[in-house]
Amino acid sequence: MNLFNKKEQVKGVIESLLFMSEKPISIKILTTLLNISEPYLKETISELIEEYKSRKAGILIIKIEDSYQMVTNPDYAEWISIFQKMNSQSKLSEQALETLAVIAYRQPITKAEIDKIRGVNSEHAVKSLMEKKLIKIVGKKELPGKPFLYGTTKEFLKLFGISSLNELPEIMDFQKINAA
Q1: Could you tell me if 106 and 135 are in contact, meaning their C-beta atoms sit under 8 angstroms apart?
Q2: CATH number among 3.40.50.970, 1.10.10.10, 3.30.70.250, 3.90.1150.10, domain 7-76
Q3: DSSP structure string for 22-71
Q4: How far apart, in whole angstroms, are the C-alpha atoms of residue 45 and residue 64?
Q5: The predicted structure's pLDDT at residue 45
């Protein structure tokens, strides 16, 4: 018995499955999972393929032997390449993440204080975090030499999907998560 009343629902489920799958999904799996006939599946996927092509969509559905897969449209490869380069540049090293965590939980904090907590020189990590606009200079400490004080930025909040520092997990909670 068909679980769906409308073809649009079937299309939506097919799109969802193809989108979330990293590998092509076979016709056999789709027909079994959706409890629909092979001809109906092929007709529905053909319609989806045409819909994507006709509007020059960023994603396409392709057939690979007896399977289907959702892929990016090769017409937009240049844009994808630019984004991938941008995205790879924004990845943080383990050292930068550790430094960022120290700053987030102890701000405002000097570089010397960061170095003491981490037990290593954090100059490169601090510079990298500044370039990525995840931290900023928030003042100077009243000590000889007046060292800079560092704190996190709005970009930091955006990156971690939080609206304020109050949403950072408690350090004890984080230790429990790490121990699990």
Answers
A1: no
A2: 1.10.10.10
A3: SS-EEHHHHHHHHT--HHHHHHHHHHHHHHHHHTT-SEEEEEETTEEEEE
A4: 13
A5: 97
- The reply to whether domains 7-76 and 94-179 share a CATH topology is yes
Q: Measuring CA to CA, how many Å separate 140 from each of 112, 147, 151, 159?
A: 13, 5, 11, 26
DSSP-derived letter for residue 165 is G
Class of domain 94-179: mainly alpha
CB-CB contact of 157 with 163 (8 Å): yes
Each of the 180 residues of the chain gets a pLDDT tens digit; together they read 455 568 999 999 999 999 999 999 999 999 999 999 999 999 999 999 999 999 999 999 999 999 999 999 999 988 888 777 766 556 788 999 999 999 999 999 999 999 999 999 999 999 999 988 999 999 999 999 999 999 999 989 988 888 999 888 877 644 454 454
* CA-atom Rg of the chain in angstroms: 25
Can you read off the two tokens belonging to residue 171?
A: 């350090």
